[in-house]
Amino acid sequence: MAPTIEDATNSTQTSNLTEFVINKGYGVKGLSETGLEILPNQYIQPMEERIYVNNVMLGESIPIIDMSNWDDPKVADSICDAAEKWGFFQIVNHGVPIEVLENVQEATHRFFGLSAEEKNKYSKERSSSNNVRYGTSFTPQSEKALEWKDFLSLFYVSDDEASALWPSACKDQVLEFMRKSEVVIKQLLEILMKRLNVSQLDSQKESILMGSKRINLNYYPICPNPELTVGVGRHSDVSTLTILLQDNIGGLYVRNQEKNNWIHVPPIKGSLVINIGDALQIISNGRYKSVEHRVAANGNYNRISVPIFVNPRPSDIIFPLPEVLANGEEALYKQVLYSDYVKHFFRKAHDGKQTIDFARI
Fold this sequence. Notes:
Helix content is 31%, strand content 19%. The protein is built from twelve helices and 14 strands. It has helices spanning 5-9, 14-23, 27-33, 73-85, 98-112, 116-119, 159-165, 171-195, 203-210, 278-283, 322-325, 338-346; strands at residues 64-66, 88-92, 132-136, 150-156, 212-220, 232-235, 241-246, 252-256, 261-264, 272-276, 293-295, 303-311, 317-318, 336-337.
């Protein structure tokens, strides 16, 4: 049964809102579905964190790269140039079938269409595994203002574990998206490594670059007063690469490093958005840039996105590659246990690019 307007009214106090949104598992989707007309105070962001039209660069775009011919040196140059300058780019004709993308989007809507009680079986307190987590916002216990987003986070260990533990509403489609993206991920990393003088990915480098994966299903429901809050706050990813499937609604913004303003990433049907994560910035000694990005709330439409986070293994030590430093370049980052880096990221609210300082010399 859908939550009522009385539920929302009773949830304006912090303790009641926590009970409704987090403990009962309704999330912000539940708040939105009550017909709430005023954004609860807990979601109102400080002025400096809101997205303003006058701080968005109109007419500017991150690169869009046609991957029809992977072997074309111009394609490789475009990928590496985008990773160095922008930290973000979109790829089209990448080889992941459109039906796979559509199926995982449908599965995302199907999971979030489940009852709060059913979704809450996968919450931090109730999930049978730390590798499967349903939640809301980012780290509610650490945030002064909450973010307008619900999510399901799935850490991939094996097909067998996924089949046993992931929600039946979405597991098959999520696994297929991950499988079909594998070739794209490896080809992108091989291209990026060649510019760093790494001619071949041996098993050790493969582990450090793509030894683990996490996939999130994100749901951004219709929001009252979207101008007062955010779907996701300013941050850079801790991954090596992030492969993002977004729907046709839009709302992803990337920081333009040169001009210190924000660029909207318009949805392109069938495309994937690629961004560099902190791990690759460290491994490349800063040559490839992980860049701040954030998501706007929307007052008219529900939005979903499905990112695959390609990561080192938790037990890997990450540091600038010897090939990058071979010409005498000074290391900008120290050796860091990847699991320590990730824990540092998740124990605080989103704070732009500050996580990278954990590894800086």
